[in-house]
Specification:
The chain is α+β, with helices and mostly antiparallel strands. It contains 6 helices and 7 strands; from the N terminus they run H-E-E-E-H-H-H-E-H-H-E-E-E.
C-alpha cells in the first residue's frame, strides 16, 4: 500500500478511536449527572419528609393529648403535599413480647406460610429472643431486621412481614386495634380482609365504639403507649414515593429538654405503580 494510503488509514483509525472515547465520556458524564440529580432529589425528599414529621410532632405536643389510635393527615410544606401517618407502636406486632399463637398467626396470614412451618418459625423466634448471654440476660431483638438471623426466616418472608412489626415496644405482646394498620388487623381477624377494612374505615370515620368482635380477643388490648412511629410519604416527579419514618418516645427524658426523643429513623422508596394495560 502506498505510504499516503497507510497514513490515511491510520488517521481514520485514530478518528474512530477518538470518537469511541468521546462517546464513552459523554455517556459517563450523563450517567454521573443523572446519579447526582437522583441523590439531590433524595436529599430534598428526606428534608421535606423530616419537615412534615416535625409539623405533626409539634401539633401533637400542642394538643397535649396522647395519640391513642392511628391517624393520618396531609401536610403541605414548600408547596409539596405529603401524607403523614402517626401510629402508636402497639398497633404493630412486637417481636420481643408477642406470644407463639400471635406469631403463628402473623406468619400464616401475613407471611402466607402453612401451619406447620408457621409454628416452627414462631417457636424459633421465641427461642432466639429468650437465648441468654453470659450475664443471663435474654438477647432480645434490637431491630426488626434481626429476624433474618432466625432459622427459616428468609428475606422474601421478612419483606412480607416487616411493615407489621416492631422491636421497640416493651409491652404485653398484644395489639391495640385502634392503632393497627389494615394489614395487622387482617392478621388479628385471621385473614378476614373485609372485616379488617371495615374496622379501619369505621375508625377513620371517627365512629365511637368501633366493633372489633371480628378480631381474636386473645391478641388485643387498648392500653395507651407513648412510643409512636411517624411516617411521611413524599411524592417524587417520576411517580415514586419516598417514605421517611421516625420513631419517637414522648415519655423519655432528653438532655436538651425536647418533648420527644427520636430513637430510630428509616427511609425507603416505594416503586412506581404502573397502570395495567
Amino acid at each position: 500500500m502506498h505510504p499516503r494510503g497507510m497514513a490515511l488509514v491510520s488517521v481514520l483509525w485514530m478518528v474512530a478511536a477518538l470518537s469511541i472515547i468521546a462517546t464513552g465520556l459523554t455517556r459517563s458524564i450523563r450517567e454521573e449527572a443523572r446519579l447526582m440529580s437522583l441523590a439531590r432529589q433524595d436529599v430534598q425528599a428526606q428534608a421535606l419528609g423530616d419537615a412534615a414529621i416535625q409539623v405533626v410532632l409539634q401539633a401533637i405536643v400542642a394538643g397535649n393529648k396522647p395519640v391513642v389510635q392511628l391517624v393520618q393527615t396531609n401536610v403541605v410544606y414548600k408547596g409539596v403535599s405529603m401524607q403523614v401517618q402517626a401510629m402508636p407502636l402497639n398497633g404493630l406486632i412486637d417481636i420481643n413480647s408477642a406470644g407463639i399463637p400471635l406469631l403463628e398467626r402473623l406468619l400464616s396470614v401475613g407471611g402466607g406460610m402453612p401451619p406447620a412451618a408457621a409454628q416452627a418459625i414462631a417457636q424459633a423466634i421465641v427461642d432466639a429472643r429468650e437465648r441468654r448471654d453470659a450475664k443471663g440476660t435474654p438477647q432480645r431483638f434490637e431491630a426488626e431486621e434481626d429476624l433474618l438471623r432466625v432459622p427459616g426466616m428468609d428475606y422474601d418472608l421478612y419483606a412480607r412481614l416487616a411493615a407489621l412489626l416492631t422491636a421497640d415496644l416493651r409491652g404485653s405482646g398484644k395489639v391495640n386495634p385502634m392503632a393497627a394498620p389494615v394489614e395487622v388487623l387482617a392478621v388479628l381477624a385471621n385473614g378476614n380482609a373485609g372485616a379488617a377494612i371495615q374496622i379501619a374505615a369505621n375508625r377513620e370515620a371517627g365512629q365511637v365504639g368501633v366493633d372489633t368482635s371480628a378480631l381474636d380477643a386473645n391478641f388485643i388490648d387498648s392500653v395507651t403507649v407513648r412510643r409512636l412511629r411517624i411516617q411521611a410519604r413524599v411524592p417524587m416527579a417520576d411517580g415514586s414515593v419516598v417514605r421517611v419514618s421516625r420513631s419517637v418516645d414522648f415519655g423519655a427524658r432528653t438532655q436538651d429538654g425536647a418533648p420527644w426523643h427520636t430513637f430510630r429513623t428509616t427511609s425507603g422508596v416505594e416503586p412506581v405503580r404502573r397502570k395495567k394495560s
